[in-house]
Design brief:
Blueprint lengths: L1 H15 L6 H8 L3 H5 L4 H14 L11 H7 L4 H30 L3 H28 L8 H11 L2 H10 L4 H16 L9
Helix pairs in contact: 1-2, 1-4, 4-6, 5-6, 6-7, 6-9, 6-10, 7-8, 8-10
Amino acid sequence: MRETILEAARALFLEQGYSVTTMEQIAGRAGVSRPTVYAIGQKAQLFKLVRDLTIAGDHDPTPMSGRPDHMAFTTAADAESSVRAYARASSVLLRRLTPMHARLREAAAVDDELARLWSVAEEERLTGARIVAEVVSAKGPLRRGLDRERAAELVWTLNAPEHYERLVLVRGWTHEEFASWHAETLVHALLPLRRARRT
């Protein structure tokens, strides 16, 4: 039942946005009563749960750190392999997350609870970027003049869903074209040029 409600909420949030969507609509889409929907949470809580579900990609409770994509990036043999593994995983995540991220951005402009969620989401992205910088720098040198915090800020900037939104959803790039650009841009932003190799 919970999965059905969250999937209904996700569909409605994406179709018409957060502000317009009502709990009654979510209940109707899910085929349940409004009290059943409220038992999971208020609308803002539903949006957060839907966003978390979108990031995970499924209803599996396994944390992201225990999933194959994350493990491939952390166990890669060298810094460039690690960056490229991260870029692959990041591109797949961005394909899932970008439409929901756009809805969050819209809602944050008019709803205080969603504005707080936006701030938390951005801090979470920065925390994740710091992990990337730490893992990569442990496997080899960063680009000359780049410290770990600045590297994290570059990752945070380059993995922003707005890039996927503009290049794929607006300009019509294929996902594969974006993924290739994403990998090459991260490699050249983070690593010494002499280490960069095309794959």
